[in-house]
Amino acid sequence: MEMKPTESELEILQIIWEKGQCSVRDVHEVLEKTKDAGYTTTLKLMQIMHDKGLVERDTTAKTHLYKALITREQAQNTALDKIISTVFNGSSSQLVMQVLSNNQASKEELDMIKNYLDNLEKNN
Questions:
Q1: Which of 25, 26, 4, 15 is nearest to 68 (CA)?
Q2: Please, are residues 69 and 62 in contact by the beta-carbon 8 Å criterion?
Q3: Residue 8: its pLDDT value, please?
Q4: Contact 63, 83 (CB under 8 A)
Q5: CB-hemisphere CA count at 13 Å for 21?
Q6: Would you tell me which of 37, 97, 98, 105 could form a disulfide with 109, CB atoms 3.0–4.6 Å apart?
Q7: Which residues does residue 58 pair with via DSSP β-bridges, in sequence order?
Q8: Is 63 helix (H, G, I), strand (E, B) or coil?
Q9: Coil, helix or strand at residue 68
Q10: What is the pLDDT along the chain (124 residues), one digit of tens a residue?
């Protein structure tokens, strides 16, 4: 089953990836700094994420702790695949050209991109 977190779920995953294991209270305190989110909403979202297999819940202690079951890279790949297929009509090159035209890449970043492309060419 492919895991496709929603935008709200990704916000929670970002916190869990950063902190490791988290209680609902831990996550809620971080979310509360930037948005008007109720504790019960955070709890419900994390329960849904558990049901979807995005997080696992350790219930051995009084305070349940949540840990991500999806890596940051998996979430990035899923989101990127969705963007490429829906926004860029399946064209990776269109995505790359759009990103490079909208964001000023440093010389180091451009060198890394060139090296990556050179390696791709050599291996094909």
A1: 15
A2: no
A3: 93
A4: no
A5: 9
A6: 105
A7: 65
A8: coil
A9: strand
A10: 456 889 999 999 999 999 999 999 999 999 999 998 899 999 999 999 999 999 999 999 899 999 999 999 999 998 899 899 999 999 999 998 898 888 888 899 999 999 999 999 998 7
Phi, psi of 11 (to 5 degrees): -60, -45
CA distance 120 to 92: 14
- At 104 the pLDDT is 84
Q: What per-residue confidence (pLDDT) applies to 105?
A: 86
Query: Encoding tokens for residue 40?
Result: 């019960």
Give the pair of three-digit tokens for residue 29: 């305190």
Dihedral sign from CA coordinates of 4, 9, 10, 14:
negative
Residue the block writes with tokens 């902190």? 19
123, amino acid identity: N
Cβ 22 vs Cβ 63: under 8 Å: no
- Residue 63 Cα distances to 1, 24, 56, 60, 115, angstroms: 29, 9, 14, 8, 48
Question: Could you tell me the two tokens for 111?
Answer: 């060198």
